[in-house]
Amino acid sequence: MKKKPIVWVMFSVVFISLGGLVLLAESNSVVPKTMTKMVIADIGPDVPKGSFAARPKTTYLSGTRYGRIEEEDDPKEKLHQLILVSEPDIWMINLADKTAKHMVDPGPTFDLHFPAFEVKGLPKLLFSFELGHEFDFFEKVSKKKKYPKVVDGKKYDSYSVGVGDYTVMLLTEPGKEIPIFAFLFNKDAVVDALEYLNYQAGLPFNASLFKVPAGISVSEDKGEKN
Question: DSSP assignment, residue 31?
């Protein structure tokens, strides 16, 4: 039940299209006005403390087309990964050696999704709980019903939705739509957990963040077709 690495998740979900062709075609023709920035650390029970996997990643999301994930430098592996999505284009970049692989989403629709939790057997509804769209999820599923909750002496607003044995819970700053923690439970056991170290919605869209940096050698990868 261990969650797959964030790199795999990001690459795999860009090929998931949940909307209709007409709506997606219309959204693709409009440059977004805003974006969301998140700095998130995986603090789940399967992630060893102090490991590279536990280091926070910075993510930018905008609309249904644009995504950016910045990982920290990993000198041991000679890897400093940057993932860019500007649908239908996807770049997997290693800033350490200044190389990149370019892939193209084969379509026919181009819709970026970023599920918070990737667990085998997770109900489809909970899989649709996505980073950057947390409150859209709870608005759709539970009309944003929230309850006060105290954890380790700290007060939060709590949102939760359960399907079968699984429950997604989001803890936020009281009275504000700012996530602090997200949890996935199987019955009473924590399967995975995320800590939001920074969350800024409604930032002005910056197109340069979704373009390949100067000095990167890009090669084509035609092998990834879903």
Answer: -
